[in-house]
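$ run holo --ligand "flavin-adenine dinucleotide" --emit tokens
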Amino acid sequence: MTPNDILIIGAGPSGLFVAAELARHGVTARIVERERHPHRQARATAIQPGTLEILESVGLLAPFLAASEQIHHSRLYGPGMQELGGLSLDGIDCRCRFQCSLPQYETERILAAHLAALGVTVERGVTATSVTAGADGVRVVLSHADGREETVESAFVIGAGGAHSITRHSMEEPMEGATYQGHFLVADIAMSGPFVRGEAGVICGPNGFLLLAPLPGGRWISFQDLEEEVESVTAEDVVARVHARLGGSHRPTDVGWASPFRMHRRMVSRLADGRRFLIGDAAHQSSPFGGEGLNAGLQDGYDLAWKLALVCRGLARPSLLEAYATERQIADRHVLEVSEQVHRSIAEAADTARQRREMHPAVADPVAAALLCNARAMLDMDYSGSPLVVDHTLNPAGIPGPRPGQRYADRLQFGGASHHALIFGAAPGAEALRHLNHRWSRQVHVIHNPAVNPARAGVPSGGVVLIRPDGHIGFRFPASHAEALTQLDGHLASYLVPNLDVGQCGKDER
Ligand SMILES: Cc1cc2nc3c(=O)[nH]c(=O)nc-3n(C[C@H](O)[C@H](O)[C@H](O)COP(=O)(O)OP(=O)(O)OC[C@H]3O[C@@H](n4cnc5c(N)ncnc54)[C@H](O)[C@@H]3O)c2cc1C
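-- output --
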């Protein structure tokens, strides 16, 4: 493969991460970005626990922890800072029981440094001006900052160009959905806040709402409502508007970046067509109240990279690529729904306060609260229904723990970029194990370690479980005898290509 074989258009968070992930999986891509210099806008600040787990799996957690504030709680306040409800991440089943909060330019700086360390440089000042799919590949015209035009023939194009992605336009994929009512203002401000810095809050009052989340360096990212559409806002306006919502001595002492914006709930109906793949804002836009958009883009990249790399390296069948669209469609729709739920609850509280109606603290339902916590932490992504997910248990509803399609919460103990077959209970015959290794050693690590807890993998009474490179369970068989390995072999053969040495034994396994 040459780098031109995979061209990534756009070096925002989604493009940077998918490029780094492809490199980690052994495939080098080319990545172009039209802006000549990195931006300095705080934009998306929340990195959710589910994404932190992904970042840890690729060795990137430390720089994110070093560059961010940690948020453990978020709360909703009415007039006079009356607490109406809240959400704590303390009880989630994840190593990071908090969000990281950092400006988007810092996230991009960390991702770009990681990518550079993997030997890939972003080509800045290069704009994709045309994308055309043909029978054998995709033709892309690149316009360089010095006026030079270059035509590239790529096997695959990853559209990571954000909301106005040229790749999406070339696929004639409209962003279906709607724009939320209202106009909003985002500002990066320095201020002594109305609550402790390990928390985020939304304060609703008669003058409007104010969302605050801490940023490093004593700063806060703030969202508030605008009465009407405006082109821009001065720093003085931001100070006055924040003070009007908070009162007392809370007044910004510095305004870094401020911008009016609108919120959307939109998504394409097709994330890929075999050669062109849409990731991040090119494929979906969710309400920033959910704090999921950037996270979902990173998770798209994480998902696409392992599949595309296996196909490009000849280790998987091309049909594996179809599962990207299937699986991320499920996940990204879920993101839109969760963000919508958060958006509605904030919008309703803001309306009630603005109309000076009485506000009541929310009555906590512990089950609903736990589900919402997992959803907001982005730990509840479930790919069941995907062709890459198979369950051989007879009564899945009666078995506690995760089921195929869901995340395996203990996967960080294994590391690496491959699949893991976990065998719990009496080992199957040595011959069966040898056969499995012989056929799949390039893609699958077999682990038979009594110290690993079977219940946490969804087989409390023992069995065989396949953990995919993204940490989701792809296969479960509730016993560990030879039949389990035969079924696992069949499942792997449905999308992976077995080791060549097996092929050399006279079997054409493709
Ligand atoms: C106010 C606000 C707050 C938000 N808060 C959060 C939050 O807390 N958490 C969260 O997860 N998300 C949040 N989001 C959403 C988040 O900002 C986006 O989801 C994220 O930026 C998407 O990243 P991306 O890489 O997909 O696209 P972008 O960040 O839009 O990057 C696309 C890149 O592609 C480049 N490009 C475009 N076209 C071309 C071309 N033809 N050729 C070459 N380069 C091209 C662009 O210059 C750009 O650098 C927020 C959004 C807003 C507006």
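-- notes --
Residues 501-510 have pLDDT under 50 and may be disordered.
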